[in-house]
Design a protein that fits this description.
CATH architecture: 3-Layer(aba) Sandwich
Mean pLDDT: 85
Number of helices: 8
Order of helices and strands: EEEHEEEHHHEHEHEEHH
Distance between the termini: 31 Å
Number of strands: 10
Strand content: 25-35%
Low-confidence stretches: none
CATH class: Alpha Beta
Radius of gyration: 19 Å
Length: about 250
């Protein structure tokens, strides 16, 4: 069964088309990396899956429903969190934000607190529950954000540049936490980190207005084509031809 099914999807910001006639599928239980140049539409694609943006045309189903209707089943870790370091909030209070849609009258239930604490254990931060969030390192904060996403008990986890603000000393534990999660749910992560791609992914979606799927490992030639400004158009045409789309080849 498909976790994500996208058919001829297009989206634009104003006059600028960001996603153009895109079709792809992600199976339940897959771990898929989304790569491509800056400005190519990677983060926008996640926002469309969440229902935070509305397509111009095409269809996008997520977990069996039109995008936006399955939001309670999706965990989302944004690229950056705006946070006032002077605001007195604890780690467990951050994680409980993932249960806000289940908040009863006055306080979170024992079940919500249990789920939040289990989410912290999953990312190996159970002993940090009462620490001030502001006291944590960048890597620890990012793992807390994953715990917050896990607190909604998702079937699909979306991560936008999860290692972007993590120092190298914390990255190993962070990747270990993600490797464990890929056994339990569908993962889709936007990243420029090719080591993270090889550690976590079953395949790759290359996004640059269009979307192409590539198997792993990526060749050095493919990587150069994806990230080289001069060769992206060539890569797009060649890959679409190989995958049966001859609309830019001049033949049927």
């Amino acid at each position: 069964m498909n976790a994500v099914s996208c058919t001829r999807l297009s989206f634009r910001y104003g006059k600028a088309k960001v996603i153009d006639d895109v079709s792809f599928e992600v199976l339940e239980g897959e771990s898929v990396a989304v790569i491509g140049p800056n400005g190519g539409g990677k983060s926008t694609l996640l926002k469309l899956m969440l229902g935070l943006e509305v397509p111009e045309s095409g269809k996008l189903n997520v977990l069996g429903n039109p995008a936006g209707r399955s939001r309670r089943k999706i965990g989302y870790v944004p690229q950056a969190m705006r946070f006032d370091p002077l605001y007195p909030v604890s780690v467990i209070e951050i994680v409980l934000m993932g249960r806000l849609d289940r908040l009863g009258v006055g306080a979170f239930s024992k079940e919500c607190r249990s789920v939040a604490e289990q989410a912290l254990e999953t990312v190996h931060l159970g002993d940090f529950r009462n620490r001030p969030f502001s006291s944590l390192s960048g890597g620890e904060r990012q793992r807390v954000m994953i715990a917050r996403a896990l607190a909604c008990e998702p079937e699909l986890l979306l991560l936008d540049e999860p290692t972007a603000n993590i120092d190298l000393s914390a990255e190993e534990k962070f990747i270990e936490a993600l490797v464990a999660l890929r056994q339990k749910m569908t993962l889709i992560l936007v990243t420029h980190d090719l080591e993270l791609v090889s550690e976590l992914s079953d395949s790759v979606l290359c996004v640059n207005k269009h979307v192409h799927r590539h198997s792993l490992p990526l060749s050095g030639e493919t990587i150069r084509e994806i990230y080289s400004g001069r060769r992206r158009i060539e890569h797009d045409r060649k890959t679409r031809h190989q995958q049966g789309d001859h609309s830019v080849c001049g033949h049927d």
